[in-house]
Amino acid sequence: MIPARSALLLLFPLALCCKSSETAPEPAATAATAASVTPPTPPAVPAASAPAAPAGDLASKVHPALLSPATLNEKAPAIFKAQFTTSRGAFVVEVHRDWAPTGADRIYNLVKAGFYDDTRFFRAIDGFMVQFGISGDPAVNAKWHDANITDDPAKQSNKRGFVTFAMAGPNTRTTQIFINYKDNTNLDSMGFSAFGQVTKGMDVVDSLYKGYGEGSPRGLGPDQGRLQQQGNAKLDRVIRAAIVP
């Protein structure tokens, strides 16, 4: 789930952000998966040094605003829908601003600017959650590494199908988000505030590749820090995300 800081991974969801080398509190044993007797960590983002932007890799390929996070500050509608077209099909997330205003504004701006286009689902744990939100362009990741937003109170529970930002501690949400595969109510008291819910295509979310299990170093999944610095890996991906009627 979790800034390029260390992988708090999905219980401190991957959050959004992804920064690299902090530890997250362990979830209850009930969150353990069949693939491991050790409970998965919360959706988190790595908390290490910011990835360096490769020279000459900025550019023409991305929306100019993605290189200037402070400019993406539009207020989101009270309720809106975002469609994520993936390598497995499409799913729709309905976002409610009153559930988490700051988080809703951030996801609205990221989707409109194309941040999630061609991003990978890098942490998918059966019976827990799936996390994504690291840009395929290291230059973009470098710009968003410290673009944190303040926390929203958790008004909605992390139930199956609900969508939440990953984080590495208080006020560390950036771009990483996760979708709950089951009712992960233990995340509510940890400050994970859901901003939306998958209203269409949950079967697509369920079908995303989970063969790697937990992320590195606890499992065989990709290392968040390397993804931020090196770009996309061969994983299921979001082809395009867009605001829809």
Short description:
With 245 residues, the chain is α+β, with helices and mostly antiparallel strands.
Strand order of the largest sheet: 1-2-7-5-6-4-3-8
Radius of gyration equals 16 Å
The arrangement of helices and strands along the chain is: EEHEEHEEEHHE
Arithmetic mean of pLDDT? 78
Strand coverage percent? 15-25%
Give the CA-based shape. Answer: globular
SS-based class:
alpha+beta
Annotation, overall tally of beta strands: 8
**Chain oligomer state:** single chain
Cα separation of the termini: 27 Å
Regions with little confidence, pLDDT below 50 for 5+ residues: 1-38, 48-60, 225-232
Helix proportion range: 10-25%
Give the biggest sheet.
Answer: 8 strands, antiparallel, barrel
Number of helices: 4
Structure description:
The chain is α+β, with helices and mostly antiparallel strands and 245 residues long. Helix 2 (138-144) packs across helix 4. The protein has helices at residues 101-113, 138-144, 202-207, 224-230; strands spanning 79-86, 89-96, 119-125, 129-132, 162-165, 177-180, 194-200, 237-244. It is built from four helices and eight strands, in the order ββαββαβββααβ. The radius of gyration is 16 Å and the shape is globular.
Keywords:
20% strand; 8 strands; globular; disordered N terminus; 13% helix; 245 residues; alpha+beta; 8-stranded antiparallel beta barrel; 4 helices
